[in-house]
Every structure is written in structure tokens, then in C-alpha cells.
Write the C-alpha cells for this entry.
Amino acid sequence: MYLGIDIGGTTTKMGLADSSGTFHSENSFNTTSYSSSDQFLSALEGEIIRMVSLSGVQLQGIGVGAPSVNFHTGIIENAANLGWSGQLNIKSHLEDFMSCPVLVTNDANLPAIGEMIYGAAQTMQDFITVSMGTGLGCGIVSNGNLVGGHHGMAGELGHINVKPNGRKCGCGRRGCLETYVSATGLKRTLFKLLADYNGGYSELEEFAFDEISAEKITEAALRGDNIAIKAFNYTGRILGMKLADLLLITDPEAIFLVGGLARAGKLLFKPTTETLMDAKLDTYENTVEVLPSKLPPEKVSLMGACGLIAHGDLFGKTARDKTILERKSL
Amino acid sequence: MYLGIDIGGTTTKMGLADSSGTFHSENSFNTTSYSSSDQFLSALEGEIIRMVSLSGVQLQGIGVGAPSVNFHTGIIENAANLGWSGQLNIKSHLEDFMSCPVLVTNDANLPAIGEMIYGAAQTMQDFITVSMGTGLGCGIVSNGNLVGGHHGMAGELGHINVKPNGRKCGCGRRGCLETYVSATGLKRTLFKLLADYNGGYSELEEFAFDEISAEKITEAALRGDNIAIKAFNYTGRILGMKLADLLLITDPEAIFLVGGLARAGKLLFKPTTETLMDAKLDTYENTVEVLPSKLPPEKVSLMGACGLIAHGDLFGKTARDKTILERKSL
């Protein structure tokens, strides 16, 4: 059995699965209540003991997804979303604690791994997943391998620039993609539109900024609320423009839109796809599809964490070291 | 011996090299004088006969770089720069003609292959080359492998969007990066600046649009011409902004600036690097260097073509097929 762990800003999810990705037990706990990495680690280890040791299974490895983690070293570095700062070598701590192999990756890569091993990308060599929730993350697969980057920090698509001097981003800069394209970005766009239209156009005018959510905007749009629909169109247009750029860089055969915001379905997919097809270079005609995930949305990341460790020889160090050895022997 | 062929819009260069990348003979011919792919192919085959057969060497393979070529199929498809349209399967034609293996790749990938096998990137797994000449091309290496893309069309960085409704591009769209960052882009920027300043500020005011070149602008800048220097600063700022985005996508340890425009040295490197370091996300502090090539600028692409075939097992089909077989057997 393999243990998958998906460390998020709000919740940490855990699942015990076999190598086919079928979960035998699942668990989760609140991530926000810890003020240091030590406290968080103790809580995590307690949950692992409860889940693994008490169930008596033989653990073959742990796969971990976390924000701001270095794929190669296994260190979480100053994760802005995690309530504590500094470094946590989650890989070496868990390896010592459970005496089994541990592989870690940026949480934005988990859906890509999930789709590649268990989902709609099983036969694909070159594809991209764009995960839109509170922020925007991205997993890129090229030649059948995850593009990890030299410091394990590839795929930070959420912070590419959309507009110089655009919206203020949590990273300290302005105009990042995720300030427009994410659940949070959609809400900001809605409020910009409400300001533009000055009342009388939307059922969402009755909600405070603190009360509105992507779900509320989706429901209103599905009921035909014009401003809510416009907010989705604006979001999709910006995403489509940036996907047209991404097409030029990695030439994928499919782009999967996943995460909370993708549940809005056609409301998001239609303007995104139309803009992408319109904006792309002619030579990419019929080369790419924008697709939804085929995995359960609430499980795709956890399946990715299990897949990472169950089939880790497909990514990671092995392939890298082999290539550089071959090159050094030239 | 291996034959490298670099098919460019103006000139096709050829070189016979051993596996260490040392050339034993070189040749080139004008590409512009052929109005069909058949005529071009006949001329190319004539040159190969002269170069290879007459020299009596045993050819172990041919590596080819060409514009708009599909890495996987070996087909040149509607190359806008090549004076003829339609498709040319350069791989199968040359394989039949010379009875030896042939590997082809987009010409923008050649400098990346050259640097990886013979140049400054020999110990690198994750890096990017940006080649700036008439246009702008890009080679991306991730996990020690070339990012080829599903249709062999990755790395078309020259056509990512800089400004909606920006400068008219040869591809039919507007605002592409290469309309700003290339030898041609530099010239356009110079003329925009001359228009802005309205005379009396630059020695370059005496030249017609048809007469000006990146070399002339470089020479003027080196002599202290303020408008020529501003043109380089503007070019470098746009390149630096886009490299900051690229950093987020593939997280390279180095970005090599190569090709004709890179010969301007500090004039281009300084504003590019300063902008990149200023615009990048904080977490990429000290993660990347902007570097010049260590190979002779006029030979780097041809060395890449030879390296592609001499060490083709490092890229291409082998690794791809292996990965998908492993995944299918899960």
C-alpha cells in the first residue's frame, strides 16, 4: 500500500491506496491551526500513525504534494499559504519516521500525475493541467516526464504577468495570472463589473465582498445572471490568451482544466477554448484540446500523490541521473 | 562521420564532423533560389554527394535542423521562410537517398543541442537557449531532454504575445515577441524612437529603413549613440519581462542568449538581465543565470545538427517510446 498526502493551505488530505489508485482509507485534518513547522509535522505524524500503523498495512512508500516544495530536495521553503515560515524537509523527516521511500512534488503537479497514471492522460506524452482554486497552479508533462525544473519550481503559471500594473497579487507583484484566473480572481472580476455597471444588473449586488464565492457566482450565471456570465467570459478570455502562449512553449496535445473553478464547466470552458482557438498561431490548428479531468475532482490530487510514489520511477531522479551519466560518458 | 545540415531562410549550412563535434569539412549554399521543395531537395542532394561521396567517408547519420519541421515525422510543413510551400518529408527522402539514419528538429532547437552536447550546458539538465536573428527561436531542455512537444512544435517563443494589437508579425497576428526582440525588432524599435525624437539625436537618422541593420545599430550604440542605446534597452526590457514568465514555467538553471543579436553583448545582456532580476518572483532569487554561448556563434547550430544525430539516443523517440511502454504496462 502507498500513502498519498496532499498538504493544502486549509486542509491536508491523506489516502491509503494500492498501486492501481484505489483508496482503501482516507482522512483529512485542518492545516491552519499550526504556527510552526514542528507543530504541523507532529500533527501529520500522529495522523500517519493512526492511519497506517493501526490498520496494520505494510507501507511501501509515501507521496507528498505541498506548496512551495523543491521536488529534488524535498524541502518546503517559506510556503506563503501554510501559516508558518522557514524550511521543513518533509521528505527526510517522513523517511526517518516511517522507514520507507518518500517522494515530494509541488502540489500543482499532483493533478498532472493523477491524470497521467490513472486518468485521461494515460496515453499522452505531452500535456498540461491547469488547476484553478484559491490560486492557479500548473503541471507540465513533456516527453512523458514531469517538467520539474532545476529547483523543482516549474509550473508556476499562476504568476506569469497578464497586465503590467494589474491586480495586486499575494506574491507582492502586480498583474499575475492568478489574480484574474482563479476562484479569487473570478470574485475580483465580478466586483470590478459591479463597479462598472453601478447597480441594477445582477442578483449578486446584495452580497458583501466577504460573502461572495465562486460557487455563488456560478449558480447566478447558471440562472442567467448577466454580470456573473460576463465575469466568466472575462476570466476565460484571459486564460485562453495565456494558453495560446503556453501552446507555443510546450506544444501539448491536451490542456486539462481542473480544480474548483473548472467545475463551472461550459461557463469557463467555452470562453477559454474560443479565445485560445482564435488567438493561437495558425500552425497549431487542430493540435490541442481543452479537456476536463476524468477523475473525481476531490480525489485527483490525492491520486496524484499516490501515483507519484507508486510509479515514481516514471519521473524524478532516476531518469535525470541516467541522462546526465550518459552525457558525461560521451 | 556525421553530417549536420542547418536549413535557414537565406543559407543552408552543412558540416561533416566526428562525434566530438570537430568539423572536417564545411559547405553552404543559397536557399533563396528554389521555388519548389523538389528543386531545393535536388540541390541539397547534389551538395551532399559532392561533400560526402567525393570525400570517401562512411556516413553514420544525418542531423537536420529546419524551420517549421515536425520533430517526430520529419516533415517540413509550410515553412513561411523557405520560398516554397507545401510539405517536404526531409527525413524519409534523405534516409532513402543516403541509406543512413536521419534525425530532424526545429532549427530553433539546434543551439540548445549544441550547448548541451558540446558547449556550456554539458552538465545542465534544465536550461533554455533563446536565439535571436531575423526572428526569435527557443530551445527548452527539461530533465536533460529537449522539450519537443506533441507535434514537434515546442519552443516557438518568438510568437508569444507581448502587446495585444502590437506590431504586425509575419505570422499574420500582432504583438509577437519577435517583432520586438530580434534583429528585425531592434530595427523597428530604432525607427519608432527616431519617429518619437523627431531628428537631431542620432547618427542613424541618415539611413533609410532598407539600409539599417542590427550591426549598424550595434556599432552606433558602441560609439555612444543615445537612440541606438535606447533601442537596445527597450529590446532587453521586453525580453527580460518575458524571460521572467518563462522562469515560472520551466525553472531553468541558465538561459543562453545566442544568435546574431546576442553578439551585441552587454548592450543586450545588461537590460535583459536587470529587467529579469527585477521582474521575477522572489522565490527564484539566485536560481538562474543569463549566459552567452561558449561555442563559436557561426557554428553552434551546425554543431547542434551533428550532435543531434551523433547522440540522438539522448533525445527523440527512444526515451518517449520507453516511457509510454512502461506506463502501458502498469
